């Protein structure tokens, strides 16, 4: 908490278990700052929807994607992004799985990779309906129930991922990114070239890049818990040849080195690293 004029409120919840295949989690955010807050977003393997409940001011940071003006949606991203937020931000963040994004938006995810699109551009009238009911809800638990209600109706009726792509995704996540692309192709019955082409089209990034991002987030998990591992142990556990390789991926995918991540306690800076550890600030 900064000055009396500043405040931050976050609360997270898992979706209804019926939505587990499609949605990772919900995060409610209500923040106000009289000074700009630099908000970094790590490279992530999951599409993210930000549903604004009030108009928000998000300013582009050089080198990053321009956020959509209202309720931005981003696909998978393979590089750190950033924007400056000022004033009040009251929104609900929905972290989807690729299967969920394919079902909800009805299109391959390559069109969303490394970009930001307004939710209304993807869902049309459904986006207005959702935002209106979330705004009218009286509490955050009620807003989470609104999301459960509509997403459980829309997603099961949407198109699935190709089964080979879905299988490859599951194998990669189960192996924490430590799987060779050739072995992955053999297991789903495709050539390596065909797997790369179809995976990139349907998911938005190549299997190799997705594996790097999975390993990065595994490393973040290992050092952000109550008993953090040593960096040399983290590098070995996540499949890095040595700590310098780990450092390079941190800089490329997170925008800072491992030591800086743990010192990231400036009140005017935050890093979003995903639902399980949403903001490091």
TrEMBL record:
What are the recorded GO MF terms, alphabetically?
DNA-binding transcription factor activity; sequence-specific DNA binding
Residues forming the HTH araC/xylS-type domain are 166-264
Q: Which domain of life is it from?
A: Bacteria
Record-linked PANTHER family = BLL1074 PROTEIN, HTH-TYPE TRANSCRIPTIONAL ACTIVATOR RHAS-RELATED
Q: What is this protein called?
A: HTH araC/xylS-type domain-containing protein
**Which organism does this record belong to?**
Amycolatopsis rifamycinica
Q: SUPFAM superfamilies of this UniProt entry?
A: Homeodomain-like
InterPro entries for this protein: AraC_XylS_family_regulators, Homeodomain-like_sf, HTH_AraC
What keywords appear on the UniProt entry? DNA-binding, Transcription, Transcription regulation
